[in-house]
Amino acid sequence: MASRIDQEYQDLKELVHRAVVERLDEEGIEVGKAAKSTLADFVRVSVSDYLTANKVPLSTQDLSLLSREILDEVAGFGPLEPLLADPSVNDILVNGPGDVFVEIDGLLQRANTRFINDDHVIRVVRRILSPLGRRLDESSPMVDARLPDGSRVNAIIPPIALDGPSMSIRKFTKNHLTANDLLQGGSLTREGLETLLAQVTDRRNVLVSGGTGTGKTTILNLMSQHIPREERVVTIEDSAELALDHPHVVRLETRPANTEGTGRVSARDLVINALRMRPDRIIVGEVRSGEIIELLQAMNTGHEGSMSTIHANSARDAMVRIETLLAVNGYDASERAVGRLIGSAIDVIVQLARQPDGRRYVSEIVEMRPDTDDPYRMHHLYRGASHGESALA
């Protein structure tokens, strides 16, 4: 019964939305140029007029809700508007019109939000992409783009997505966690923090390792804040999430191919270029492809104190992951040579973990101490505990 009533409301919402858009056109009102308050008044009156003309009974509360949602449709991103405005929401995952999930404090949960139908989802995605000059249609069914506020959106539609359009948004936040936040949240101890920051001041090459959603960018951002201010830093990211309060930072961001399949600038291209920019340190947001070759070589040739992150579930797994990246990207060398390259380039691995309840913490900090028998011999500098609340985001 509840689902039938909800569907009736969604059907009504679609009809009202069309009527309001037609009335905007008739009045010659340009949404992009009109003040939000003016639009809000216009939408409220138009919705009320439609309901009266069509004899649709609606309570004052429901009328207010419908007017607000229609305003979001006209001037914003529809059902996504309240989620985008909620600072507690880190990720928005749309699996279809009625399946919307959000991540809050490390936990995925179903949102009390839905779209009208598949076309509604696609319409909102296209509205997001429109000012970015990106397209989403049958000939180009996948898109990955960065919004003006730094958030990252990925969308995929049929025929590639078999069950309907899907979208994920990784929200960008300017409220980066401080060292005290991590201490108070139980993500690491005072000893762990001192060990972590010592790696920065000692110019150690650091790899932050962890699974999806373990807070790798948070830790990388925290460490980057403590780079001496007289040093020149070049950052390379797929989407700019690092926020360095530093006087000498050059920020570089990758670029996907355009609709013609040209113009792509990869992380590897940017690392190669960064080496020509006289950096003291290079920070790569995440290594996931051929950029690992140039980064390791940079770490071995005078760019001490460089940092990056990698997806791996343990420090040892991180080494295997790097070996795999080197192999699939054409680094032709013996197993021994590869081990020596990795073992001599990376000084410290910071391993992050995430509990089933969403708690995230620094599980260990290990120092690489390679020898002739084991290029990946490790020594623990810090071991974390998994109990307590987690601040990592």
UniProtKB/TrEMBL annotation:
Residues 75-355 form the Bacterial type II secretion system protein E domain. It holds the Pfam family T2SSE. Belongs to the GSP E family. PANTHER family: TWITCHING MOTILITY PROTEIN PILT, TYPE II_IV SECRETION SYSTEM ATPASE. This is CpaF family protein.
